[in-house]
Each structure stands twice: as C-alpha cells, then as structure tokens.
Amino acid sequence: MSDRVDVAVIGAGHAGLNAVKEIRRVTDSYLLVNGGSLGTTCARVGCMPSKVAIHLGDIYAMRKHFQRYGIDGADSLRIDGASALEHIRDLRDTFVDLVLANTTDEMEDELVDGHARFIDAHTIEVGDRTIRARAFVIATGASTVVPADWRESFGDAILTVEDLFELESLPKSLAVIGLGPIGLELGQALRRLGVDVVGFESSTNLARLQDPIINQAAVEIVRREFPIWLGAPAQIERAEGGVRVRAADREQVVEKVLVAIGRRPNLAGLGLEGIGCLVDEHGVPLYDSRTLQIGRLPIFIAGDATGGVANLQIAAEQGRIAGYNACHEIHRHYERRTPMAIVFSDPNIASVGVPWSELDQSQVVFGQQRFGPVGRALILGQNRGLLHLYADRRTGVVLGGAMVGPRCEHLAHLLSWGVQQQMTVKEMLRMPFYHPVIEEALQDCLHGLEKKLDSLPPKPGWLERLFPGRGRRPAGAEASA
Ligand SMILES: Cc1cc2nc3c(=O)[nH]c(=O)nc-3n(C[C@H](O)[C@H](O)[C@H](O)COP(=O)(O)OP(=O)(O)OC[C@H]3O[C@@H](n4cnc5c(N)ncnc54)[C@H](O)[C@@H]3O)c2cc1C
Ligand SMILES: NC(=O)c1ccc[n+]([C@@H]2O[C@H](COP(=O)([O-])OP(=O)(O)OC[C@H]3O[C@@H](n4cnc5c(N)ncnc54)[C@H](O)[C@@H]3O)[C@@H](O)[C@H]2O)c1
C-alpha cells in the first residue's frame, strides 16, 4: 500500500500531537504514524502517574505529624500497596483517555499504527506500507537507558518507569539507580509508600542541581528520609534473596532495582543514517535549534527525540514550531523561554534562569533566604529549605536562582516570570505580596539582595547603561523570520 501526503508526523506524544494541530490549520493531507502505545509518555508513564504516586506518598507521610497536631491513632494507619498502585493506574487511565479523546480518537485513516523507517528524505516505510510526504516531523520521544546485560541477567528485578506502575504490589525493598528528577521523585514517593528505598547517584548532584549551595541543602533534607549514596556509579549482581547493588565501598541487597540513569531518544530504528543525516555522538541528527530542521532535509524534529531538555512544555512548543515549519516555506523560530526546571520532590527543588555554570560570578550579587523562619512554612510544618537568588551586579536585573523548599513549584514560576520580563530586584519588590504566604520567602530574599546592591559603590554611567541593555521585549517571544 502506498500513500502520498503533504506532511507525515512520526510519534503521537505531545510533540507529535501539537505538530498535527499546526498542520491541520493548513492541510488535511497528513498522516500521524505511531509505533507502540498511544496516550503519550506524559500521561502513560511520565509526569502524571508519577505525580499521583508522589501525592499518595505525601498524604501517607503526613501521619508522622499527627501526634504533634493532637490527632491520635496514626500508628494504626496502614497503606495497602496494591490499592495504591490501582489508584495510580485508574488516574493514569483517566489522563490517557483525556489525551486520546481530544486527539487520536478523532482520527480515522490519518492514524497509522507501526514503526516508521526512512527510505529516503521523502519516503518512510511502516510495515508493508510506503508513505511519501513533502515533509516529515520526527517526534518519537525517548526511552529509559538500561545497560544491555541488566535485563537479561536480572529479569523482573529490573524496573523502569515503563513497568513500575504495572506492578500488582509494592516491593519490600528497592534500590533507585540514578537520582535525576525521575529517580528522586519516584524514590521518595515509594519510600513514603512504605518501600525500603536506597538511592545511588554517580555524580554528587541530586536532581541535576547545579547550584552547589542548594544541592547541599537538598542532599541534607533528602538524607533524613532515606539513604542516598552519591559520587560513584552503581553496579548490580545477583545475590541471595534479590540483587546486590554496589557503588564504591557501599552495597545493599534489594528485591528490585528502579533504573533511572537517563533517557535516550528513540531514533535508532528510523534509518536516519541512510538518508544523509549527520548525527552527533548520541545518534541525534544535527538540526537547527531555531527552525528544528535537520540539515537541509524536509525533516523537522521536536520533543524528547531531540535529546535536549526533556519537559512537556518544551515538547509541545517544539511540536507546534516543527509542525508549522513542515508546511510553510518561511519558518518560525523556536526560542526557549526562561529556563525553569521543577522537581516535585518534597520539598520541591527548582532552578530558574541563568544556570549556575553560566554565571559570571564576579558580576553577580547573591541573596539567600532560609524557609525556617517563614511563617507559612512553619504553619505547614514544612520549613526546611533554602532559596538562592542571583542578580546582575551592575543593573540589579534578576538573573535567576535555585531553591529547595515548600511549594517552590510556585516560587519558581514567579521568579521565572520576573526573569523573563528582565525585572530588576527593585521592580520585583514593587509587585504585590500577601501574608502569610510562602511567597514572602521570595520577598525577603529580594529585600536582602536589594540591600546588598544598594551598598555597592555606584559606577559611572550606571543609569545610561541600564536602559539600552534592558530592552523590554520578553526574552523568548516567538519570532518570525
Ligand atoms: C517518569 C517521568 C516523569 C516526568 N515528569 C515530568 C514532569 O513532571 N514535567 C515535565 O514537564 N516533564 C516530565 N517528564 C518528561 C515529559 O514526559 C516528556 O518530556 C514529554 O512527554 C515528551 O513528549 P514527546 O512527544 O517528545 O515524546 P513521547 O510522549 O514519548 O511520544 C513519542 C511517541 O513516539 C512513538 N514512537 C517512538 N518511536 C517511533 C517510531 N520509530 N515510529 C513511530 N512512532 C514511534 C512512541 O510510541 C510515542 O507514542 C517526565 C518523564 C518521565 C519519564
Ligand atoms: N519534574 C520534571 O520536570 C521531570 C520529572 C521526571 C523526569 N523529567 C525529565 O526526564 C528526563 C529523564 O530523567 P532522568 O532522571 O531519568 O534522567 P537524568 O539524566 O536527568 O538523570 C539520570 C541520573 O542518573 C545518574 N547515573 C547515570 N548512570 C548511573 C549509575 N550507573 N549509577 C548511579 N547513577 C547513575 C546520572 O548522573 C544522572 O544524575 C530528564 O531530562 C528530566 O528533565 C522531568
């Protein structure tokens, strides 16, 4: 069977579905090819079921405060792991249904089931079907990296996010290998649901945190809840009663291992090397980071398949740009908004704006604020944590920050909106704040920064230099070429 269409999109995750939305504005002549389960990584195994697990863990962990609050009987509370897992699957199915209802359920012949492989820059094969298109969008996502011999040698003892939520019951003990966002979020959630968890991380950073002060604070907080061993790669071997995990001089025998050592773009089977794509050392084709076009080919790439920052909003936005560019001669540019990463551990961990590694430390003034004395944090019984802000020494413009603390998911948004608007410390302080709220931690931190900035000796030409450099166009606003 042979088809000829304007655009074919490969992959029905958020990137691919958003590409389709753009393409449909221009043409009905498109196909969406998806190999594997429909419903998106986010809804099936990613953002959403992991947040349900975190929520259940947080609720159950609250029992530890009950006695202090005058609530009796916490000792007799028990969690039924099987029911908790069933609830996660129930909600997961709801999220998947919501995605499908608005997207692929409405498609008929436009949806093609199978894995695509390029024959040439205008042709793919999907099973016994040949599809010719004027342009393609590759949005094939990514999958967990599992060392080749681990599955073979350790079978069911090895878990990834792809199978964790399918378990019928919770394991008694679990080693989480890799404490990036996935390992930390799920390791903590499972610990709170009663699993004996130990975490292994080869770097010295939790959740990819670059800011050393916030990393140190986060490590100290997480360690109060379960052991985390940092700084050496973990290896595993068979042991009586389960699997032995070793890292440097540490070892632990556990029933199961959750592998969370990173995700790799699903590009291997696409045959890209055969159609003249130059690829990097990870097999990702070289593409223009603004137009998302691969070389000069009529092929665009979006979402986790790019091997770049993996998050839902970026996948969706890149999908829209790739879809648009696949059916327009004049391309739109993808420009990343102010970087923001939030890890939904308790307390939340977040980084915003200029990453630590890119700061010119001699030009930055730093502000710190502990959550310890913040009224609302004390009321919530969640006052561990620290906020660290960075501002430009010369102009007072807020550059970003990192934080570990209660409800930092919201502080991170507030901060990123200020950074995107290129606001100064003083301008952010003129924004409204209420009481008693966690946002007062941000206000206090900004006051501290303001004091430091005001105490710096004035520099000649300070004001004149301030305005030309500041330009009021929000960074990252979509531009058309
Ligand atoms: C456990 C976990 C938690 C996460 N939590 C968050 C979070 O809290 N916040 C956040 O922003 N992000 C989070 N993410 C990341 C987020 O889920 C992803 O960045 C996003 O879903 C990627 O979307 P995508 O469209 O690029 O890929 P996907 O949704 O993976 O879609 C790719 C599609 O392509 C199909 N496919 C693959 N190969 C082929 C082929 N050869 N031919 C045809 N089809 C193919 C796949 O079956 C799939 O349907 C999390 C991820 C995980 C795993
Ligand atoms: N809240 C969120 O936004 C969220 C949540 C989950 C996932 N994600 C995204 O999903 C992607 C994948 O997340 P991830 O956590 O799987 O990957 P990651 O690459 O962010 O982290 C993997 C970690 O594993 C460590 N590691 C590698 N090999 C190891 C070994 N042998 N022993 C011990 N540690 C080892 C690495 O040093 C790294 O810290 C990320 O890009 C992330 O942004 C986002």
Automatic annotation (TrEMBL):
Residues 341-443 form the Pyridine nucleotide-disulphide oxidoreductase dimerisation domain. GO terms for molecular function: flavin adenine dinucleotide binding; NAD(P)H dehydrogenase (quinone) activity. NAD(+) binds at G178, L179, G180, P181, I182, G183, L184, E185, E201, G262. Keywords: FAD, Flavoprotein, NAD, Nucleotide-binding. The active site is at H435 (proton acceptor). Binds 1 FAD per subunit. Residues 6-319 form the FAD/NAD(P)-binding domain. Gene3D superfamilies: 3.30.390.30, FAD/NAD(P)-binding domain. SUPFAM superfamilies: FAD/NAD(P)-binding domain, FAD/NAD-linked reductases, dimerisation (C-terminal) domain. Its cofactor is FAD. FAD binds at K51, D304. Disulfide bonds join C42-C47. The keyword Ubl conjugation does not apply. Belongs to the class-I pyridine nucleotide-disulfide oxidoreductase family. PANTHER family: MERCURIC REDUCTASE (PTHR43014), PYRIDINE NUCLEOTIDE-DISULFIDE OXIDOREDUCTASE RCLA-RELATED (PTHR43014:SF4). This is Dihydrolipoamide dehydrogenase. It comes from Thiocapsa rosea.
